[in-house]
Amino acid sequence: MPEARRAAVGWAVFLAAAWLAVLGAGRAEAGRPVPPVEMKQVAPDLYFHFDFQSSNSIIWVTDEGVLVIDTRQHPRHADELIGKIRKITDKPIRWAFNTQAHGDHYLGNQSFKRAGATIVAQAEAARLMDRYYDKDISRRGAFFGRTKFDPKEIVKTLPDRTFDRQMVIRMGGKEAYLLYFGPAQDPGASFVYFPHAKALATSGNYVTKGWHNPMFTPSVDGWLSILRHVQQMEVDHYLPGHGGVGTKQDVAEAIGFLTDLKSAVQDAIAKGMSPEQAADAIKLDKYKDWRNANLAKNQIVAMHHLLRTGKSIYLDLE
């Protein structure tokens, strides 16, 4: 095997192992307390289910039924969310939308399907869910260990319907727009726009004051372009896949983070640094208190791989 290829494979394996060790392990860094899981109302008919240690969900409640955005990381957590929804409304859960092909956004699908929901995802996201399902389950060992949830209880439940660029869900005289602008954090990662509430569900494409994980993206420039686009939309409330409800200023900070990370890694590559050397040398102290800053070395290695090869370090691992 050529030396360059051997090095790339070695670092890909390293990164995968690192993420296996930390994902879902509880992200209260430096002894900070973990914020409580809670349901927050952001509009009269819109709720934000905040879970700092896993991923968030959004619930749109209408007189005709309910749309749930992201079904959580295990059917037990999904069942818990359904119980919370039932405290808000007795209307049927008609739709469940998976914003991206990460298990913390769709491994609760079976519970919502059993509750009567039609599962929806963007077509590329659905394809990745199927193709990388086993790998996605395997990298969540820390989460399953922390929660004591058995991954064997999960039944692979893929979307019933898919769309390419846009799908509109109409209920209660209002509309929710499921939108795909192209690959951002990963192929298929989509948004949901609620014009009546000036709210946008962002999946992991945008997270509030958190290190944006570049393991999956095929293009950081494309990702940045999409973030700039959604920053210009008529939105007051950005509802991220991770972190709290955000503002336009928070989106600007996210753009700044990805730009700074890219620039720092580009400079390291220009100096001939290996992924390991870059991970040791780069210190983005401006973001040291952000969520998942403890995973900085993993993010740097992933960005190094992306900028050198033009490929995702995770989706390229087969």
Secondary-structure map:
Layout: H1 3-22, E1 38-43, E2 46-50, E3 57-62, E4 65-69, H2 75-88, E5 93-98, H3 103-106, H4 109-114, E6 118-122, H5 123-131, H6 133-138, H7 141-147, E7 161-163, E8 166-171, E9 174-179, E10 191-194, E11 199-203, H8 220-232, E12 237-240, H9 248-270, H10 275-281, H11 296-309
Parallel strand pairs: 4-5, 5-6, 6-7, 11-12
Antiparallel strand pairs: 1-2, 2-3, 3-4, 8-9, 9-10, 10-11
Helix pairs in contact: 1-11, 8-9, 9-11, 10-11
How does this structure look, described?
The protein has 318 residues and is an alpha/beta fold. 39% of the residues lie in helices and 19% in strands. The protein is built from eleven helices and twelve strands. It has helices spanning 3-22, 75-88, 103-106, 109-114, 123-131, 133-138, 141-147, 220-232, 248-270, 275-281, 296-309; strands at 38-43, 46-50, 57-62, 65-69, 93-98, 118-122, 161-163, 166-171, 174-179, 191-194, 199-203, 237-240. The strands form two sheets. A seven-stranded mixed β-sheet has the order 1-2-3-4-5-6-7. A hairpin with a 2-residue loop joins strand 1 (38-43) and strand 2. The longest helix is centred in the C-terminal third of the chain and has 23 residues, at 248-270. Residues 1-9 and 16-27 have low confidence and may be disordered.
